[in-house]
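Fill in residues.
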């Protein structure tokens, strides 16, 4: 199988590319149109109602309101496996164009090729927790430090409703910090907490609806509890990497970490040199994170 060449635009300036390389993140306002934002907001309701055949989500009674359908969901993992709408936004042309400039900008001779391996739709209703300090590379290992997230804001993300907080430049060494259980279940969900660093330089990333935040997979980041009275903080975040790197995410029978290469990926820019391997069909399933809110203040 020969991989097609996927041509994408190059929307970023050299200064923006260098900012991403140096700081580990980049904010692009106004990438998504109002219609695109509304399409994704509507689709997560369809997901929650069981519109798409799926093992993890059963159809809900029609008498439930849209708010009732999604109010207990913190996050849907891999919605692009079952939703053609979410799959479409994995390949958003403007976002993929930016990815083709920054995912491997630190690598000599990189040709701009990019693949996607994960999507996550965060609903994050009022009173729901955030996630403690972590680095995405801990969960999605790459071989060349090209992992990055494209974080699409479907609501204004504010300090009040639990926006991202980041430690600029914390990606530079490529060091993966150890993790431990945290002692703040009111603020953060059950995920482990990275530790062993000074977080005094953290900054909030408050953005308007339609903005996209790109951040490196080694960048330390967290989000806090949604303390708003009635505001969701909906986000679709997709994870991408250099298409020329293996993805040793998990092992199949007979594999070692030296040969493992997950092929449930989506080719979004440039070429996929491993297209001859074919692609694994994704399961008709998603993961749900439904942490119950602790309303104690």
């Amino acid at each position: 199988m020969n991989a097609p060449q996927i041509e994408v635009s190059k929307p970023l300036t050299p200064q923006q590319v260098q900012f991403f390389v140096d700081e580990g993140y980049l904010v692009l306002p106004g990438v998504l149109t109002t219609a695109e934002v509304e399409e994704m907001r509507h689709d997560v309701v369809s997901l929650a109602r069981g519109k798409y055949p799926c093992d993890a989500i059963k159809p809900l009674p029609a008498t439930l309101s849209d708010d009732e359908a999604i109010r207990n969901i913190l996050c849907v993992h891999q919605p692009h496996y079952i939703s053609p709408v979410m799959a479409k936004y994995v390949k958003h042309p403007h976002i993929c164009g930016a990815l083709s400039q920054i995912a491997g900008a630190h690598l000599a001779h990189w040709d701009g090729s990019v693949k996607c391996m994960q999507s996550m739709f965060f609903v994050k209703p009022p009173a729901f927790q955030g996630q403690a300090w972590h680095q995405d590379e801990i969960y999605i290992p790459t071989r060349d430090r090209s992992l990055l997230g494209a974080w699409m804001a479907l609501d204004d993300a504010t300090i009040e409703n639990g926006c991202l907080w980041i430690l600029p430049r914390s990606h530079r060494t490529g060091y993966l910090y150890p993790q431990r259980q945290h002692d703040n279940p009111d603020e953060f969900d059950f995920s482990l907490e990275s530790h062993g660093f000074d977080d005094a330089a953290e900054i909030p990333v408050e953005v308007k609806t339609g903005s996209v935040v790109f951040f490196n997979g080694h960048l330390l980041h967290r989000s806090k509890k949604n303390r708003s009275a009635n505001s969701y903080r909906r986000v679709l975040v997709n994870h991408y990497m250099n298409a020329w790197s293996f993805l040793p995410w998990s092992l199949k029978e007979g594999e070692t970490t030296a040969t493992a290469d997950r092929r449930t990926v989506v080719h979004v820019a440039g070429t996929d040199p491993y297209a001859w391997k074919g692609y694994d069909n994704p399961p008709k399933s998603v993961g749900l994170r439904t942490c119950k809110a602790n309303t104690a203040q």
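Residues 293-297 have pLDDT under 50 and may be disordered.
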